[in-house]
Design goal:
The complex is a heterodimer of chains A (about 325) and B (about 325). Chain A is mostly helical. Chain A contains 13 helices and two strands. Chain A has a domain of about 200 residues: Orthogonal Bundle (MetI-like fold). The longest helix of chain A is centred in the N-terminal third of the chain and has 36 residues. In chain B, helix 5 packs across helix 7 and helix 7 runs parallel beside helix 8. Chain B is globular. In chain B, strand 4 and strand 5 form a beta hairpin. Chain B: It is found in: Cell inner membrane. Chain B: It is a peripheral membrane protein. Chain B: Its main location: membrane.
Chain lengths: ~325, ~325
């Protein structure tokens, strides 16, 4: 178990190093941030001053060496634009995105699994067909369009929820969260729903496919032959078996929801890290981009590790010690 | 003889498929008495497993019990609601299945699966249920049952899993146990052990056994009576010794002939020509006629049931035994 975790962390460090190098060089190759940062009227001297201040006058290997040295000491550099440590910048925005992604995950699970179960148990019913048709829409309509339609319907036409922003936040263990205030909650619902729709469709399909497969198994027949109630058969015997693929996929999807909530955050002007990333790419703010992607890798590694641990908890046949790779 | 515990009368089970309505079980009747073992024999697709599931009320759509009655201690199960059936299942009538690798839920511990079976029918504490589960495991010959309770199914061998399934099925000392080829997937030595254990346990609790199998040697060793099924009908029924020694129906005769025998070493093995007919295209008369060496023009009409002495019955116009006066 411990060996397994250590090995996983070792792999993660390697991925992290390779990724950071690639991104560092790629952003360097894309263009010169000084041209974007400096005012159009700036003369050659001012441009050189900026270049020197940012350390961009040195050769690439020196810049990279400095970056690695600082990174090993926990410093991922200062943003060119905000002149703040890149990590602080990201961590300040992270709670908003985490809150958004987790809310979306909760919505996807608590609506998706029951709907998928229903569609799997009654595949021929009107309800079953409607759920599957709806999930196809959730899959195929572009995310930004779904977001715009949500705004149009619930903000513009019905006026139930605000169209953008984060709303009032309240401190919870030193972290500002918005789900504790009514105003924050009303700001949270639409973007979370937007982010959840695709995942919900995915959960519905996974759950339905799993349910239909598991229902045909002998152990379900045997469970019914024991005289168990329908709710026990479905709630324990079926659900525990279909959770295995659902947890795997959702783990991966949670990572992608946090890292790439870009579209939703843009549509709803939600102040999360997705929007920060888009802005930073636009301004070639290299330290922020690199720090962001490094953080993303770390997050994916942690989430995958947690998924594996949950996986072992639901499926007794998985033994982590024996996992090879 | 006393009243039978289980009496199936003219059971018809239909499945709605693309080809139309298929009759998987067509007018099956049989009785089983307390402590008796009935062997239900037939090839794949003969309707024996469907008959077993129908007795438990476990036929799922698109299948349904179209007509007939299933009397458990005189009460007709086909007229019961799902909730009433649920209370009977596992308590009064239980079932075990063919593949021990798949009958236990792979993600639940054995104790969970046993305790839930007890508490589905009796209001007992978790602890009391657990003690009973442990005793039940010990009774089917599982060593160190206390430790095995907290194991998962994949930690057991096939034979051990089937023992666990049998222990679960017999937890409530049911009146009837339907066993759907429970030893087919096991080694012969394990098979023999399990057969004798089930026989003994069933005799102890007075449980009537309906033993579904395609293996005549199992029937010969275990059953009191045997019913041979072909294409959804019982074609021959009687005491095991009578049927196996002097089969009346050519199909039964063919089945017996197909058992590889020690006495005919070197000769080609006997077989029944052709294969089981598809339910979608059953011949109008006797379903076995196309494969039958004795078939003639008469067999184009469906044969009725002929009863002879010694509680024997068969459906054939040209039986292999002389028809006695009782006909």
């Amino acid at each position: 178990m411990l060996v397994y975790v250590i090995r996983r962390l070792g792999q993660a460090a390697l991925v992290l190093a390779v990724m950071a190098t690639l991104v560092f060089i790629a952003v360097y190759a894309v263009g010169d941030p000084v041209a974007i940062l400096a005012s159009p009227q700036a003369d050659q001297q001012e441009l050189e001053a900026i270049t020197q201040r940012l350390g961009l006058d040195r050769p690439l290997y020196e810049q990279y060496g400095l970056f690695v040295w600082n990174a090993l000491h926990g410093d991922l550099g200062r943003s060119f634009v905000y002149n703040e440590p890149a990590l602080t910048l990201i961590l300040n925005r992270l709670p908003a995105t985490l809150e958004l992604a987790l809310t979306a995950l909760v919505i996807a699970v608590f609506i998706g699994i029951p709907l998928g179960l229903y569609a799997g148990l009654k595949p021929q019913s009107l309800g079953g067909h409607s759920i599957m048709a709806g999930s196809i829409l959730g899959f195929s309509l572009p995310n930004f369009w779904q977001g715009l339609m949500l705004v149009l319907l619930f903000s513009v036409m019905l006026g139930w929820f605000p169209a953008g922003g984060r709303g009032t936040t309240r401190e919870l263990l030193g972290v500002p969260v918005s789900f504790l205030t009514l105003d924050g909650l009303s700001h949270l619902i639409l973007p979370a729903l937007n982010l959840a729709l695709y995942k919900m469709a995915l959960v519905i399909r996974l759950t339905r496919a799993g349910t239909r497969e598991v229902m045909l198994q002998d152990y379900i027949r045997f469970a019914r032959a024991k005289g168990l109630s329908q709710s026990r058969v479905i709630g324990v015997h079926v659900l525990k078996n279909i959770l295995i693929p659902v947890v795997t996929v959702l783990g991966l999807e949670l990572g992608s929801m946090i890292a790439f909530a870009v579209v939703t955050e843009t549509v709803f002007a939600y102040p999360g890290i997705g929007k920060l990333l888009i802005d930073s790419i636009g301004r070639l703010d290299r330290p922020v981009i690199v720090a962001y992607l490094m953080l993303t890798v770390v997050m994916f590694v942690i989430i995958n590790l947690i998924v594996d641990l949950i996986y072992a908890a639901i499926d007794p046949r998985v033994r982590l010690e024996e996992a090879k790779a | 003889m006393s009243e039978p515990v289980l009496s199936v009368r003219d059971l018809v089970v239909e499945f709605t498929a693309r080809e139309g309505v298929l009759t998987a079980v067509n007018g099956v009747s049989f009785d089983v008495h307390a402590g008796e073992v009935l062997g239900l024999v037939g090839e794949s697709g003969s309707g024996k497993s469907v008959t077993g599931l129908a007795v438990l009320g476990l036929i799922d759509p698109p299948g349904r019990i179209a007509s007939g009655a299933i009397l458990l201690n005189g009460e007709d199960l086909t007229k019961k609601s799902e909730a009433e059936l649920r209370r009977l299942r596992g308590r009064n009538i239980a079932m075990i299945f063919q593949d021990p690798m798949t009958t236990l839920n792979p993600v639940l511990r054995v104790d969970t699966q046993m305790i839930e079976a007890i508490r589905a029918h009796e209001k007992v504490s978790e602890r009391a249920a657990r003690d009973r589960a442990r005793d039940a495991l010990a009774k089917v010959g599982i060593p160190s049952p206390e430790e095995r309770l907290v194991s998962y199914p994949h930690q057991f061998s096939g034979g051990m899993r089937q023992r666990v399934a049998i222990a679960i099925a017999l937890l409530h000392r049911p009146a009837v146990l339907v066993a759907d080829e429970p030893t087919t997937a096991l080694d012969v030595t394990i098979q023999a052990q399990i057969l004798s254990e089930v026989q003994q346990l069933a005799a102890e609790s007075g449980t009537a056994l309906v033993w579904i199998t395609h293996d005549l040697s199992v029937v010969a060793g275990l059953a009191d009576r045997v019913a041979v099924m072909y294409a959804g009908r019982i074609v021959e029924e009687g005491r095991v010794a009578d049927v196996l020694e002097r089969p009346a129906h050519p199909y039964t005769n063919g089945l017996i002939g197909s058992v590889p025998s020690r006495n005919r070493r070197g000769e080609p093995l006997a077989q029944i020509p052709g294969m089981t007919p598809s339910l979608a295209s059953l011949p109008p008369g006797c379903a076995f006629a196309p494969r039958c060496p004795r078939a003639d023009a008469v067999c184009k009409a469906p044969p009725g049931v002929t009863h002879t002495g010694g509680a024997r019955a068969f459906r054939c116009f040209h039986p292999l035994i002389p028809v006695e006066a009782a006909a």
